[in-house]
Write a structure and sequence with these properties.
The complex is a heterodimer of chains A (132) and B (284). Chain A is an alpha+beta fold. Chain A has helices spanning 90-105, 110-131, and strands at 4-9, 14-20, 22-27, 30-34, 41-44, 48-53, 58-63, 67-71, 74-78, 82-84. Chain A has 2 domains: 4-85, ATP Synthase, domain 1 (Sandwich), CATH 2.60.15.10; 89-131, ATP synthase delta/epsilon subunit, C-terminal domain (Single alpha-helices involved in coiled-coils or other helix-helix interfaces), CATH 1.20.5. Chain A is built from 2 helices and 10 strands. The chains are: A alpha+beta (132), B alpha/beta (284). At the A-B interface, strand 5 and strand 8 of A face helix 1, strand 6 and helix 5 of B.
Chain lengths: 132, 284
């Protein structure tokens, strides 16, 4: 089976570099899957779960921002925050979820509102991945 | 003889100076290694963003986003000067300040942004107006620090209508060589790359959003890279400066020890002559 190369690059290191059969990426307009011969494509990433499939197993990561480009069966992701399951701190995620929810209930400035929304999304991604 | 004690004191003080400069050299070498590692690790990220922006810029020559459009010549310009926070690194700071001074003489209308304490101190005193300054960033360097700087610089272009923003910094060449470089930061000029992507990408949600976000990331990573370069260059300069300071101290100690021994011997000879001539006087 043809394999797709993926590289996940952070400003301070290259987090993932390998070959997989199938990849699911949380794009800004919805999750999308990448198989062999995907069309050239650039999009933003929203907070979500990055799934990498091989025949034997699935690797999962919580990813929170960044860009992805697909060309010539190469997937490149640049992002600032990406965590695998052991790296997620459930306690911290839960408390930040509560904090964000509290902030969302009290309607005040627009900017705070948006920030809280993003924080809530990130926390939810972390929690859902950890509890799976 | 009071003289001999003075020399001894001086030797002691130079010895302790030598110890300090030697320790500083070691510390600088360790920090240099760390900074060099970080530069290497930041490179793929920077290259990738550069490549994507280049692909976008090649594709559409008309109607560019303000972040990429370098055709307009406005008169609001800014210069970012990157110096160190500390001294004792040879001519590192004075070289860059001198270059900045010359630049400002040619372009007196440019607004200044200072990263690093040394440049900030100098320009506050001699140039008067510093638009923004960031000090003590190099101690705990972290990517989040550069994000703060970058978002402010982006606002200059996007909100306050600056037409050109340049950076003046020391590029790390090797431990003993630093190059002073003026680089245009905004509007973005993607550098030439080996990988030429001619593919027509599908952009989601749309090109404008992508350019804006990529541009933001580009400035973040460029500031980060420049700060890393500058700190590596600073540590390199400090290492060489401290190395020669240690050598000089050793040389000075050698000279003083020689002098000390001569004076000591002269003293002994003098005492012997005094005793001998005293004994002679008694015998007579």
């Amino acid at each position: 089976m043809n394999k797709i190369t993926i590289e996940v690059i952070q400003p301070t290191k290259t987090k993932i570099s390998g070959k997989y059969d199938h990849i699911i990426i949380p794009g800004i307009d919805g999750d999308f899957g990448v198989d062999w011969d995907h069309t050239p494509f650039i999009t933003k990433i929203r907070p979500g779960i990055l799934r990498l499939y091989t025949e034997k197993k699935i690797e999962e990561y919580a990813i929170h921002d960044g860009f992805v480009s697909v060309e010539n069966n190469k997937v490149k992701i640049v992002c600032e925050i990406i965590e695998d399951i052991p790296e997620i701190d459930l306690k911290r995620a839960t408390s930040s979820k509560e904090r964000a929810e509290k902030r969302l209930k009290s309607t005040s400035e627009d900017l705070d509102f948006r920030r809280a929304e993003i924080a809530l999304k990130k926390a939810l991604v972390r929690i859902s991945l950890k509890e799976e | 003889m009071a003289h001999i004690r003075d020399i001894k004191k001086r030797i002691e003080s130079i010895k302790s100076t030598k110890q300090i400069t030697n320790a500083m050299k070691m510390v600088a070498a360790a920090k240099l290694r760390k900074a060099q590692n970080r530069i290497l690790k930041a490179r793929p990220y920077a290259d990738y963003i550069n490549d994507m922006l280049r692909a976008i810029k090649i594709k559409n020559t008309r109607s560019l986003h303000p972040l990429l459009d370098d055709s307009t010549e406005g008169n609001k310009r800014a210069l970012i000067v990157v110096t160190a926070d500390r001294g004792l690194c040879g001519s590192f700071n004075s070289n860059i300040i001198r270059t900045a001074d010359e630049y400002l003489k040619k372009n007196p209308k440019v607004d200044l942004i200072c990263i690093g304490k040394k440049g900030n101190d100098y320009f506050k005193k001699h140039f008067g107006k510093v638009l923004q300054s960031y000090i003590d960033l190099f101690n705990e360097m972290d990517f989040s620090v550069s994000i703060d700087v970058a978002s402010h610089i982006l606002n200059l272009l996007l909100i306050e209508n600056y037409s050109k923003i340049e950076v003046l910094y020391n590029e790390f060449k090797s431990a003993i060589q630093q190059n002073i470089i003026v680089k245009q930061l905004l509007p973005i000029v993607p550098s030439e790359s080996k990988e030429v992507t001619t593919l027509d990408f599908i952009y989601e949600p749309d090109e404008k959003t992508i350019i804006e976000e990529l541009g933001r990331k580009y400035v973040n990573v460029e500031i980060w890279r420049i700060m890393l370069e500058s700190s590596a260059a600073e540590q390199g300069a400090r290492m060489t400066a401290m190395d020669s300071a240690t050598d000089n101290a050793a040389e000075l100690i050698e000279q003083l020890t020689l002098k000390y021994n001569r004076v000591r011997q002269a003293g002994i000879t003098k005492e012997i002559i005094e005793i001998a001539s005293g004994a002679e006087a008694i015998n007579n």
